[in-house]
Amino acid sequence: MTFSLVVRDGERFGIVVSSSSPAVAARVAHLRPGVGAAASQNVTDPTLGTSLLAELADHGDAERALAGVTGAARNAKSIAHRQLTVLGRSGPGFVYSGAHTLGKHASATAEGAVAAGNMLCGEHIPGVLLDAYSAASGELEERLVTALRAAVEAGGEEGPVHSAGLAVVADVEWRVTDLRVDWADDPADRLAELLAVWLPQRDDYVRRGLDPASAPSYGVPGDR
Fold it and tell me: Where would one find the signal peptide in this protein (predicted)?
């Protein structure tokens, strides 16, 4: 019921995801600045994304992190129901799709990127995500949204999607972009609208966190 794309862009990591279920990004998207990014989807267990990032923080090897989480005794009873992706500071992304992954499922990997999905209209969707992202221009967030919209236009899931999300981490300890559409008939388009509002202000909000005296005001009552 979900398809996602995780990418590395220099020192930044980003993820875009969509699903027929509500609030998908709240459960699926996992990122840690300077460490990596992961998606935990298909009958989602969010703790697996946390575990993947913990493994990456420990040793930095994405393939080893995936093997460690999928092979852990604590996950033995349920891991066959999960689909996981992980990407570290170097190299390609890696994917695990358990034996009980739902419907048509597929994945695609490249240097600095990994895409995967389940309950797909066809196995081509992860490749569409990668290709559209690679061909896109603009900020990282814009390229991720372009990829998502291309995947939706190419058929996306077997049924209609209702939620979408986009997150990026960079050189501070929080998500510099964290946008969600938790329920809508057109979540990819709504996400693009949110991004158009957010992106021109993104760096100013980072400045507010680091150096509030130099950050701009937006004219909100009570704001500087």
Answer: none
